[in-house]
Task: inverse folding
C-alpha cells in the first residue's frame, strides 16, 4: 500500500542511454555497409568518366588532323584544340572556334596528357595518370588512355 504522505514518483518519459547507444551503433553499421558498397562504384564511375573524356579528346585530335593535315605538335599539346598553334602551314584550315570548348580535367583534378608520337602503338596518346597522379600504377591508380 502506498503512503499518501509521500510524494509520488513520476516516471519521466524519454530514452535511456542504452537505447540511444543501440541506435547509434545500428546507424554506424548501416553506414559502414553502404560505404563498402558505394565506394567501389565511385571508383568505377571515375574511371569511366576518364575514358569518356579521352574518347572525346581523341575524336577532336582526329578532326584536327583531318582539317590541318597533321596531328597537334607535342609542344602545344591539347591546347592546340583550343587555339591555333604557331607555325600552322595553313592557318585558314583551323576552325575559328577550336575543336573543343574547354579542356576537361580528369576526375582526380589533373589535366589530361598528350604525347605525340604515341608510345603505346598509336599515332598519339591521350591519357590520365589515374588516381595516384603519376605514371604507372595498378588497379584504381592505373593509367587510363586511348590504348585501353
Result:
Amino acid at each position: 500500500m502506498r503512503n499518501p504522505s509521500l510524494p509520488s514518483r513520476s516516471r519521466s518519459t524519454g530514452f535511456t542511454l542504452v537505447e540511444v547507444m543501440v541506435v547509434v551503433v545500428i546507424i554506424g553499421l548501416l553506414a559502414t555497409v553502404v560505404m563498402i558498397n558505394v565506394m567501389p562504384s565511385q571508383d568505377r564511375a571515375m574511371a569511366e568518366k576518364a575514358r569518356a573524356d579521352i574518347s572525346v579528346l581523341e575524336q577532336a585530335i582526329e578532326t584536327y588532323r583531318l582539317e590541318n593535315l597533321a596531328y597537334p605538335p607535342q609542344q602545344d599539346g591539347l591546347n592546340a584544340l583550343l587555339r591555333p598553334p604557331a607555325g600552322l602551314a595553313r592557318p585558314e584550315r583551323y576552325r575559328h572556334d577550336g575543336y573543343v570548348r574547354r579542356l576537361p580535367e580528369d576526375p582526380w583534378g589533373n589535366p589530361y596528357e598528350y604525347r605525340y608520337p604515341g608510345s603505346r602503338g598509336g599515332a598519339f596518346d591521350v591519357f590520365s595518370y589515374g588516381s595516384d597522379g603519376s605514371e604507372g600504377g595498378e588497379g584504381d591508380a592505373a593509367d587510363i588512355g586511348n590504348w585501353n
